[in-house]
Specification:
Layout (H helix, E strand, L loop, with lengths): L33 H9 L7 H11 L5 H4 L27 E2 L2 H5 L10 H11 L1 E5 L6 H12 L8 E4 L17 E5 L14 H13 L3 E6 L4 H5 L3 H4 E2 L7 H12 L6 H9 L2 H7 L3 H17 L3 H6 L4 H9 L5 H12 L5 H14 L9 H8 L4 E6 L2 E7 L4 H12 L4 H12 L4 H17 L1 H13 L4 H18 L2 H13 L5 H13 L3 H5 L1 H12 L7 H13 L4 H10 L6 H14 L10 H5 L3 H16 L4 H15 L6 H12 L3 H15 L7 H17 L1
Parallel strand pairs: 2-5, 2-6, 3-4, 4-5
Antiparallel strand pairs: 1-3, 7-8
Helix pairs in contact: 2-21, 5-6, 10-13, 15-19, 16-17, 16-19, 17-20, 19-21, 20-21, 21-22, 21-23, 22-23, 23-24, 23-25, 24-25, 24-27, 25-27, 25-28, 27-28, 27-29, 28-30, 29-30, 29-32, 30-32, 30-33, 32-33, 32-34, 34-36, 35-36
């Protein structure tokens, strides 16, 4: 059963689970000829932004393998949270067991939340209340404190715990032993016994308890079933319960154990141990109690309280606790969407969460559930307000994103296919901020089982007609290979896809993905393997993947892979008898070294490199200007270099050395360059000072000496 909140006024619904998100370049067809490929490449019409996508992934990914492995190495979640907790074996026990005296004594430390007095009054009037809500929200402590209150605050309150079998039993009678009773209704096969309670049972039991001046508090899960529709539920059911302030829980317990810490000294302790942030990450009474115990022990031993509290900040344990509750589908969807789209705005996350909730079987109605839940229940998700735009969402703990993704993935038996379909639609979204985050999240999921991730996630994306989805496969593969440690398997798949390039659409798309995959962190870390992939594609007769090869070459330059790439391009273009391979290599070169003037501009770095780089550049430029198939785009790109040197961002001296190196190659190179320089230097609309300087101080002098 799903609690998705109350419906809003009718508004247009977002796409349902079977309706796609907006999808980028659905009609994309890879270029089949050199002319088509060059036109797209020079217009940047590929529809993808590899540099931005990699930057987003770097911003999101912490690159910690233990964030993926920790769930496999010992932290487990009991039961299938989508269907409720599995049946748990319970030992046979007496029908009534006195509540442990230690628990009753601890009532003195209870911090009363908002609404506590109203709930206690309801118990005093009806003698029967049902506390409905999520696990780990302090319902048991609240029930014991309420019973203590109505029983007069006796030093040893007479409270007995009863088995869950009493719920719904038409023959049940209050036992002679005890005046206060508590029933902990844990789920069995996803169902709570209290959900079967109806008006008849509530009325009968309330009357019996009233006649005997006894009181019963039932602790159950979120309000559902017969109980949710009972007419008299308003007299007996307490739901949507406020949580005690976790900081006040810590304050009360610490100052009770260590009275000297009251007042300003406790405030100093709060700041020293960073308690506000720590408690916000795990806003539940149980955790606050643990923090208090750790602080008391730290104060007694004289250790550093900040370090002691920091040891409790375990994102994997936190996620395991959350999943074992189990959360409702709407909450699962919201937390999953936050993990995938972390740092995006609230509306993006909520729209994606609604669609995932529907895909998992949740309600299709519009609700207030997410906003209310975010503010009151999931404080480990932080809303950040920005003066320049809408508020964004992120996890307070840096490692929670990966822990949430891995924990959910391992527990989603029977639902992983639906999550994959939802994630695939996000990965095909035209907005780079969305599809890059979806691809990175897919990489985290695939790192749990690399071959499973290849088969279920990345192979379908890699074969898709969408260039954006293929980029998602490449980015996700890179993330998965790095996080899982399966670097060898990553390169084996990528190299095979490159080697098997043929005339079929499937092989072209796989090869295109292979080219893009070589652009990531694994390619930058192992340039030799990355360049082997590109070499296979450059030497293949097919032109289709060359756009992605060129983009990857550019990305590798931006990552600092300079000398190996320039040497490889020189090698690939060094066989005059193979005109096609030469043209491809020189096309890749001219695109890779284009001047963009933006943050990813490689020109200042290229021209500030060692002299070896300048010699390689001069030779490659000479070959490009001499190649009939590439000459036009080479001339345009070299003009960009000269124009850039007219400003102050590009070292003119180094550029002049490159130009001189081109001219020195041969008389034909000198003549070609002279024609270009004259054209640029004396252009009537936009003359180039750099070209004029080179003309006057080099070409003219060389011409006179010839």
């Amino acid at each position: 059963m799903i609690d998705d909140g109350e419906p809003l006024d009718p508004t247009p619904d977002p796409p349902g689970p079977d309706e796609p998100f907006p999808r980028a370049d659905d009609q994309y067809v890879p270029p089949m000829s050199q002319e088509e490929m060059l036109a797209r490449l020079m217009d940047d019409a590929s529809g993808i932004d590899v540099t931005r996508a990699l930057a987003i992934a770097a911003q999101l990914g912490r690159g910690r393998v233990d964030n993926v492995n920790v769930f496999r190495d010992g932290i487990t979640v009991q039961g299938n949270f989508l269907a409720g907790s599995a049946r748990k074996s319970r030992p046979r026990r007496p029908t009534a067991v006195p509540v442990d005296a230690t628990q009753l004594a601890d009532i003195g430390n209870y911090v009363r939340p908002d609404g506590f007095e109203a709930g206690t009054a309801a118990l005093a009037n009806s003698h029967l209340v049902v506390l409905a809500g999520q696990a780990r929200t302090g319902r048991r402590s609240r029930a014991l404190a309420m019973l203590d209150e109505v029983l007069g605050g006796a030093r040893h309150p007479d409270v007995v715990e009863l088995p869950v079998s009493v719920l719904g039993s038409p023959q049940w009678q209050p036992p002679a032993r005890g005046r206060g009773f508590v029933v902990l209704d844990q789920p069995t096969r996803g169902a709570h016994a209290a959900h079967r309670l109806d008006d008849t049972w509530l009325t009968r039991v309330s009357g019996l308890l009233r006649d005997q001046d006894k009181f019963l508090a039932v602790i159950t899960g979120p309000l559902e079933g017969n109980l949710a529709s009972a007419v008299h539920r308003f007299e007996h059911v307490l739901d949507d319960l406020a949580l005690p302030d976790p900081l006040e829980i810590v304050r009360k317990r610490v100052t009770t154990a260590e009275p000297q810490m009251a007042g300003p000294r406790f405030d100093e302790l709060v700041a020293q141990a960073q308690l506000v942030d720590v408690l916000a990450e795990r806003d539940d009474p149980h955790f606050a109690t643990r923090v208090a115990h750790v602080l008391v022990e730290s104060l007694r031993l004289g250790t550093d309280p900040r370090q002691e509290v920091a040891r409790l900040r375990n994102p994997h344990e936190q996620v395991a606790e959350w999943l074992s509750a189990p959360p409702v589908l709407s909450e699962i969807a919201f937390v999953t969407a936050t993990a995938v789209l972390e740092q995006l705005t609230y509306l993006w996350v909520v729209d994606a969460a609604v669609q995932l909730s529907r895909a998992l079987g949740g309600s299709a109605g519009s609700t207030l559930r997410y906003s209310r839940m975010l503010g009151a229940e999931r404080t480990w998700i932080k809303r950040t307000t920005h003066a320049s735009g809408p508020e964004t969402l992120r996890f307070r703990h840096g490692d929670l994103r990966e822990a949430v993704l891995v924990g959910l993935w391992l527990q989603m038996d029977g639902a992983r296919g639906k999550v994959v379909a939802w994630l695939s639609r996000l990965a095909a979204h035209p907005n780079v901020e969305i599809h890059a985050r979806a691809a990175d999240a897919a990489g985290v999921l695939a790192a749990v089982d690399f071959e499973y991730g290849i088969d279920q996630l990345f192979l379908p994306w890699a074969m898709d007609r969408s260039a954006v989805l293929r980029q998602g496969a490449a980015l996700g593969l890179d993330v998965a290979g790095a996080l899982s440690g399966e670097v060898g398997a990553f390169w084996a798949h990528v190299q095979r896809w490159a080697d098997e390039l043929g005339s079929t659409a499937r092989s072209r798309n796989l090869a295109d993905t292979a080219a893009l995959a070589a652009a990531g962190r694994l390619g930058a870390a192992d340039p030799e393997r990355a360049l082997n992939v590109l070499r296979s594609l450059v030497r293949n007769p097919e032109w289709a993947p060359l756009t992605s090869v060129s983009i990857t070459a550019r990305t590798l330059l931006e990552s600092g892979v300079t000398t190996p790439l320039l040497e490889a391009l020189l090698d690939w273009s060094g066989t005059p008898s193979d005109e096609q391979t030469t043209a491809k290599a020189l096309t890749v070169f001219t695109y890779a070294v284009r001047h963009t003037g933006g943050p990813g501009d490689v020109l200042p770095t290229l021209l500030s490199g060692p002299e070896r780089h300048l010699d390689l550049l001069a030779e490659l430029w000479g070959r490009a200007l001499s190649c009939a198939l590439v000459r036009e785009i080479a001339e345009n790109t070299l003009h960009e270099w000269v124009t850039a040197a007219d400003g102050s961002c590009v070292p003119r001296r180094a550029l002049l050395d490159v130009l001189a190196g081109i001219a020195d190659r041969s008389d034909d190179d000198f003549a070609v360059l002279e024609d270009l320089i004259v054209t640029w230097a004396f252009d009537t609309d936009s003359p180039s000072p750099t070209a004029a300087h080179f003309h006057d101080h080099w070409l003219k002098a060389e011409g006179q000496n010839a």
